[in-house]
Amino acid sequence: MDYPKSVPSVGLVNGQFVDEDPVAGTPGSLIPAAWGNGVTQEILSVVQAAGIAPNEASNNQLLAALRGSQLFTTAAQFNSGRSAATTEFVQRALGNYANTRSIMSATQLTLADIGCSIGLGGNAPYTVTLPDADDGAVPNGVTISLHCRNSAPVTVASKTGTQISPQGAYLASIVMGSGESANLVKEGRVWVVYGTAALKYSASYAAQFGTSGYQKFPGGLIMQWVMGGSDANGNMSVSLPIRFPNAVLAGVADEGHPPGWGGGNVTVWSFDGNNSTTTTAAARVRNVMASSVRAEPGLSGRILVWGY
C-alpha cells in the first residue's frame, strides 16, 4: 500500500495529500477511486478476517479486530520465527508447563510430552523411554519434567545410545526413586538432567556399596567400611576402598556378628587411630577377662571410618 504516486496530476505535495488553497489558488489533491477502494478494502479485509461484519456507522471496527481473538493464530509449539506471539503461545512457552499427565507402566515418551510435567506413579518397577535426542524434530532447549511417586524404582532410558547426561556423565539410563524429580533439557544430542534425581550421579555423592564400600558427601566428608581379620597379635589392618584426600578423623570397630559374652570376659574391638592412614584402617581385638587382657587372633570384624 502506498500513496497514488503513479496517477497523473494527483496533486501530491512532498508525497502526501494536501487541501485546496483558494487564497493561493492551488487545487487540492485528487483521491482516485482505485486508491480509495484499495485503502477501504485493506481495512475491511482485517475486520472481516476477525469475524466482524462491516458497519458503515462504526469507526472502531479495525481496533476491535486487532484486539479480538480470531485475527491472530497461535504459532506451533517450537516456532522460533518473528511472527507476533499470542498470549496463548507466550503462556505455553514461558512459566508454565504445556500439560500434565500420569504414567504407571512402561511408556515411550513422544513429542507430545515435551513441555509437560509427568508424574511417575505405581507400585512396581518399569521403564520410561525418552524421545530420541538425535531426532531433528526435537528442538534444543525443550524440557520434560518428571517426578516420581512410585513406591518402586523407575528407570528413565535413552531411546538409543547414551543420551542421558546427569552431572556430566553420558548414560543409557538413570534410576529415579520415590520423591525424586528430574528436569530433562535437550542440549545438542543429549538430555541433560537437573533435579534431585541427578544428585546420586554427582562426584560429590559418589558411593560404592558392598562388604567394603564408601559414601561421599558434598561437604567433603567420606565414610568408608571394610571387613578383615585379626592377626596373631590381635591387630587388624585393612586397605580402604578409596584414599582419603586429607586425613582420617575417627572410626569404630566391631565383630562381624554381635560380641560374645561369657565366663566373666568379653571380646573388645577398638579402632586404632594411631596406625590408621589415609589408605588403611586399623583396629585391635582384645579379650578382657576378670584378671587380665590378652590379644584375640583370627577374629573377623568390620571397621567404619570417616575422614575427608
Description:
The chain is mainly beta and 308 residues long. The protein has 3 domains: 33-67, no CATH class; 99-201, Jelly Rolls, CATH 2.60.120; 207-307, Immunoglobulin-like (Sandwich), CATH 2.60.40. The protein is built from 3 helices and 20 strands. The strands form 4 sheets. The chain has a 6-stranded mixed β-sheet, with no helix packed on it. Helix 1 packs parallel to helix 2.
Low confidence ranges: none
Q: How many distinct domains?
A: 3
Q: Major sheet, described briefly? A: 6 strands, mixed
User: How large is the count of helical segments?
Assistant: 3
Largest beta sheet: strand ordering: 1-3-5-9-10-7
CATH top level of the largest domain is Mainly Beta
CATH architecture title of the largest domain: Sandwich
Write the element-wise H/E pattern from the N-terminal end onward. Answer: HHHEEEEEEEEEEEEEEEEEEEE
Number of strands: 20
- Structural class from helices and strands? mainly beta
Q: Which fold name fills CATH's third level, the topology of the largest domain?
A: Jelly Rolls
Q: Average pLDDT value?
A: 89
Kindly, what is the distance between the CA atoms of the first and last residues, rounded to a whole number of angstroms?
Answer: 76 Å
Proportion of residues in β-strands: 25-35%
